[in-house]
Amino acid sequence: MAALDLWNVAHSISAQIRSLFSQEIRLVLGVKAELQKLRTAVSAIITSGLLREFEDRRFEAESVKDWFVKLGDALHDADRLLDDIRTEVFRRRVMGGDKRILNEVRIFFSSSNQLLYAIKMAHRVKEVRERIDATWHDRFLFQLEGNSNLIGSLVENRVMRETYPYDPQPYVIGRDKDKNEVIEFLLTDFDENVTVLPIVGIGGLGKTTLARLVFNDMCVKQHFELKLWVCISANFDVQNILRKILRECIASEELNANLDMHELQKKGFIKHRGSSMNTIEEVGYNYFTELLSRSFFQDIEEDLYGNIVRCKMHVLMHELAQFVAGNVCITIDSSNAIKFQGGVRHVSIIATEDYEWNGFERDRTVRSLFLIAGKRISIGHLDFSYFRNLRALRLQDVVWDVTSQSIGELKHLRSLDLSKNDKLSYLPNSVSNLCNLERLNLRECHRLQELPRGITRLVNLRHLEVSGCSRLMHLPSGIEKLTSLQTLDMFVVGEKQNSHAARFNEMSRLTRLRKQLTIQHLERLESISGEVDAFFSMEKFVLQCLELHWDTNVVMANAGEVLERLRPRRNLEGLKIAVGDAKHLPVELFQSLPSLECLAIKRCPCLKDPSVRTILRCLTALKMLEISDCRALDLSTENGDHSDDDDDENLHARRLNGHSKLQHIHIRGIHKMESLAGWFQYLSNLQGLRISLCLWLKSLPSRVILRLLKTVRSLELRSCPEFDLTGQEQEDQEDMPNWQSYGPTEL
Known about the structure:
Strand content: 5-15%
Structural class: alpha/beta
Largest sheet: 9 strands, parallel
Strand order of the largest sheet: 13-14-15-16-17-18-19-20-21
Oligomer: single chain
C-alpha cells in the first residue's frame, strides 16, 4: 500500500508544479529553477518503475524498509510545501477581492513586499529537493533495481487452492432450492448463443459447492453433451486482486470515513477524466457500487430515495484492509496507551468520555484525524495548531466549545466535520481562512445561530450541511458566491431588515445544487415576485427531495403564490410541505409532479380541504403518504364515500386503481377524524398504516373495507384514546392474516 501511496504523492507533486507554471504567475528566477529541479527529480522516480515493483513485492530487508520510509517522508514534505505555495497564491487571489490585489498575485514572488517570502520558499524547495535526490540516489547502495532478494518476493508467487468438480452430495444440506433454480435457468432455451449465470458472494458461502451440485446433476448431464470445469485459481490470485482493490479505494482515509472525493482523486484513488460529464462524487459512487456488486460491502441501508447511507464490511475484508494499510492508517482505542510508530498518516481514535489528548497530534505527518465516539462525549479545549497539516478532521458527536481562532491555521484542510456538537453556538471568523475547504458538516448543532460572514469567500466549498441547526437565523449575505456548492441541505430565509442575511434570490445562482433542499421561514417572504428576478427557477436544481416550511404562528396570504413560484422539476421524488395558516393546497402543484414517490403534509393547522383523493389521482407514482398536525382537517369522509350507486363506486375504484404503488400511509394529529375515508379500500397495495395522536378516532372502516386491505402487513395505532377495539380485532384479523396488531396497552 505504501508504494502506491508514494506513487500518487509523486504524481501530485508533479501536477502541482505544472499548475503553478500554468497560472501565469511570474516566479522569481530562483524559485522557478528550484521548482523545475524538483519536478525533474520526481519525474525520475515516477518513470523508473521502482515504486510499482515495490507494490508487487514484500519488503524483507530492514535497511530497504528504512530507506523507503525516508523517501516517503521527503515526498510528503514536498507535497505539503507545494500545497503551502498553491494555497498562498489562491488565498491572495480570492481573499483580496479587488483588481489591485489580483495584479499583485500575478507578480507573486517578484513584487518587493513578497521578496522575503519568495527567498524563504526557494530555500525550502531546494532543501526538500536535495533530500529527495539524496534518498533516491541511495537506492544504488542497496542495488535495489533488479535485486529481488532485497526488495522481497513477488506477491504473485502465491498459489491459491485449486477447485475440482467432484460430487459433494453426501456433505451438502439445504441447497436443493438454489440448485433447482440454477438448473432451471440452464435448461431454459435462450435466443442468445452464450448464457452466463454469475454466482456472487463472500468467501465461505458455498458458491463453488453449489456449482459442483449443478455440474454433477443428472439432468444437466443428460441435457448437455459436453461439460467443462475451468479452474483459474493458478493465475487468479484472489487475495492479490483484493489487495489492489483496497489500495485503489480504501488504503488511506477511506478506511475511516467517507472523505472528500477530490482529495481521493488527487491521491489517484479515483480516476476522473476531464471530459467526463460526471462529478467526482458520481465517479466515486460508481466505484462504490462496483465494489458492492462484488460483495466487498454488505448490509446496505438506503434512504427513501434509494441513496445508500450506510453499509458494513465483512470482518475478513476489514482484516485484509488493516493488513494492506499497515502503519499508514491506524485505529487507537483510547482506553489503551497511545503509542505508535512514526510515519502514520491517518488516525482514528475510539474515544471514551474521559479521553485526554496526549500530544501525539503534534506529529506533522498526520493528514486525517477522526474521533469516533460510541455516544456523545465532552472534551476540553482544543488547540488546532497541533493539526496544521491535516486534510480531514472529524469530531462528530463530540461536545466542546469551538472558540479558538487557531482553527484558521489548518490551511490544508479539505473536510471538516463538527456535527452534533450541542455547545457550538458560533464558528470563529478564522474559519474563513480555510480557502481549501470543500466540505463543512455542521448538522444537528442545535445551538448554532449564525455562520461567519467570511464563509462566502470559501469558493472551493462544495458541501455545506446545516440541517438540524434549529436555531440558525439566516445564511450570510453573499452565499451566491459559492457557485461550486452541490450540497446545501437547508436555506434559511433571513429577516428583510437584516443586511447580513442572504437574500432569497441568491439561491438561484447556486445552479449545481442536488439531492435534498429544505427552505425554512418562507413566511418572511412578503412578496415572492419582489424577492426573485425573472430568471429564478427551482427547476435548475437536480433535487430528489424538497421541503418547504412556513412558521405556523404567522398569518400570511401569499403561500399559494410562493408554492407556484417554487415549483421544482417534474422528476422530483419527495415533497414535504408545512404551510402554516394555509387553508388549501394548489392541486396544480401536484399535477406537475408525476414522479413524486413521497409526500408529507405537515403542520398545517388551518388546512380544511386538501382534496387528498384529488391529489392522489395526480400522483400515480406515490409510495408513501404522511399527513400530520393538521388539526382542522377531517379525513373521515369525502364526497362519494357513502354512495350506494355501484357505478359511482366503480368510478372511484377506477380513479384510484392507478395507485397500486402506494404502500405506506402515516396519519398523525388529525383530531377531527373519527374513521377512515372510504377511498382507502381502493388502495390495493397498501402494506403499512400508522395512525397516531388522532384524539377522536373511534373505529376503523367496516369489515368489508378491511377485507379489501388484505395486503396490509402492519397496522399501528398509538395514542388514540377514543378508539374501541372490542369485538373488532379478532374478526378482522381472520381477513388479514399478515396483520401485526398491538396490544390494548400500546394503543
